[in-house]
Design a protein that fits this description.
Elements (H helix, E strand, L loop, with lengths): L1 E7 L13 H13 L6 E2 L8 E9 L3 H5 L8 H14 L4 E8 L20 E9 L13 E2 L2 H4 L22 H9 L3 E4 L7 H8 L6 E13 L2 E8 L6 H14 L4 H8 L30 E7 L7
Parallel strand pairs: 3-10, 5-6
Antiparallel strand pairs: 1-3, 1-4, 2-3, 5-9, 5-10, 7-8, 8-9
Helix pairs in contact: 5-7
Length: about 300
């Protein structure tokens, strides 16, 4: 097994034969390199249009595929040589870095082998946005323009004279926005912030928990009316991060009350023997739309040997 990360400014990481993906691109070059089908496993799924700066993947090699290079999987020379070879075969918008051997457990059965999904402890996502009069065109693929966050009559700037002479700079009520994002921190019910939960359950025939844990959310002022939201969580549901940011923005605009947000996050005790249709909060109860995907980036996947957020 090998753990590797990639930088993606194009598409999602999961393999899909109909569209170009990072996982598919890496699997193609690995299969070409070793002249067989090499299966690549990603640590998580991202929507189309979402970036991955620190995605993690693993793949398996046979011993003879390492021996022919007069090396071992623990040899840095082998990993560096393979990483260089694969990057020379990949397009410029996908890069492998930090290629290395996965932890091994020689005394344990095969099903205890290290796995990029099962052994991932947490992840960091970031969402970048701009609240100024105009967004830097060079940021258009990585940041989203939300000028209405500061132009809304319900929430005038704290200092209406601040930055009025500077092009593209409009103040945001930082502390208020941070307070709204802090509401999501902890273990909550995120069904109202997930997409395709019911349809996926119907297809699979299995009920999946929508309770998730968010360790921390920080709003970072990057200057010139540019902001970044850092979200450290254990795991995310489909479109969960984009819906969190979109809902927080609606609370800031005054389209949704903070109390309504807190109610949607409450973990409900449901009786399996009764009809809970009227009390269970679903995605339909959350009218907020997910923010556009281009502002979202998967920054890092944490494992046991990583430092915390």
């Amino acid at each position: 097994n090998f753990q590797k990360t990639n930088d993606n400014d194009n598409n999602n990481n999961k393999k899909n034969y109909d569209v170009r993906t990072v996982q598919g691109e890496i699997q193609v070059v690995l299969s070409q390199r070793f002249q067989r089908n090499v299966v690549v496993v990603g640590a998580g799924r991202t929507d189309t249009g979402v970036h991955a700066r620190g995605q993690a993947l693993h793949f398996d090699l046979y011993p003879h595929e390492i021996d022919i290079m007069d090396s071992t999987p623990n040899d840095n020379h082998f990993c560096e040589s393979l990483q260089k070879s694969l990057n020379s075969m990949l397009r410029r918008d996908v890069r492998i870095w930090n290629l290395g051997p996965a932890p091994t457990f020689p005394n344990l059965p095969r099903y205890y082998y290290w796995h990029v999904i099962n052994d991932a402890k947490s992840k960091i996502y970031t969402y970048r946005f701009c609240t100024g009069r105009a967004i830097n065109p060079n940021h258009r693929h990585l940041r989203v323009h939300f000028h209405d966050l500061t132009n809304d009559d319900h929430h005038p700037p704290v200092d209406s004279k601040a930055n009025t002479a500077n092009y593209g700079q409009t103040p945001l009520q930082y502390e208020r926005m941070q307070q709204i994002f802090s509401t999501f921190v902890g273990t909550h019910e995120f069904l109202a912030f997930a997409g395709k939960v019911e349809s996926n359950e119907r297809k699979s025939g299995k009920k999946r928990t929508t309770i998730r844990t968010i360790h921390d959310i920080r709003l970072i002022d990057e200057g010139n009316s540019n902001y970044r939201v850092d979200i450290h969580l254990k795991g995310a549901l489909y479109k969960m991060v984009r819906n969190i940011v979109g809902t927080a923005f609606d609370v800031y605009r005054g389209n949704l009350s903070l109390q309504n947000l807190q109610e949607m996050l409450q973990i409900q005790e449901l009786d399996e023997n009764k009809d809970n249709t009227n009390i269970k909060i679903t995605r339909r109860n959350n009218k907020s739309k997910p923010v556009p995907p281009e502002g979202l980036t998967l920054e890092k996947v944490f494992f046991d040997d990583d430092t915390d957020f």
